[in-house]
Specification:
The protein contains 7 helices and 6 strands. The protein has about 210 residues and is an alpha/beta fold.
Length: about 210
């Protein structure tokens, strides 16, 4: 089982923690990332884009002018797609975008991503992430002490930290319940609290 140092917010070592091998010492499976991330991003799409077909556009069905004798091209009604206010041909219609990925695959991809971060030396464990007040500058100072230019901060429930991270372009807060493969891979470093580690291990251990 891997053992890592635990720090406070001043980057002073306060102890050690032993991480669960099935969660933080799992085999690297990068081939799973594509399917899981793709499904996650597609699930964000509403699928409500829609255009009106020829039969849906309001307007008369009367022929715009006679068939012959005008010297112009033949036309039907004004709802034809070649008119500016006509219907749309092959336009988008409401559809579901969800892609189903087996639970075991999602779990394996997440444990692989967490384990890769640990092997790369990009996983940090801190006692807590209590910054006392809603202040973006305070979070930026903490990231600066750890030399983290891009980081995902994970705690169990920390509204103050969540609000303080909103204006940081390369930092994000997540609750341990919302931990996902996309965000773990997106940010260069992962910072977990002791409570977050326990919650993650409790959710992912077989």
């Amino acid at each position: 089982m891997p053992t890592v140092d635990v720090y406070d917010l001043d980057r002073k070592k306060t102890g050690e923690i032993t991480l669960a091998d099935p969660v933080f010492g799992a085999e690297s499976r990068p081939h799973l990332y594509y399917d899981v991330v793709r499904a996650q991003l597609l699930s964000r799409r509403q699928g409500t884009a829609a255009t009106k077909k020829r039969s849906m556009v309001s307007g008369s069905t009367r022929k715009v002018y006679r068939q012959k004798g005008t010297g112009r091209a033949r036309h039907g009604d004004s709802r034809s797609p070649i008119y500016e206010r006509g219907g749309v041909v092959f336009g988008p219609q409401p559809r579901p975008w969800d892609v189903k990925v087996p639970k075991k695959v999602r779990r394996a991809a997440l444990t692989s991503a967490l384990s890769d971060r640990l092997r790369q030396g990009c996983l940090w464990v801190v006692e807590d992430l209590e910054i006392g007040e809603i202040k973006t500058k305070r979070v930026a100072e903490v990231l600066g002490r750890f030399d983290l230019s891009s980081a995902l901060l994970v705690d169990v429930d920390n509204r103050t930290l969540s609000l303080s991270c909103r204006n940081l372009p390369k930092a994000k807060y997540l609750s341990a319940r919302g931990l996902n493969v996309f965000d773990v891979l997106k940010y260069d470093h992962l910072m977990l609290t002791r409570r977050a580690v326990e919650a993650i291990e409790g959710a992912l251990k077989p």
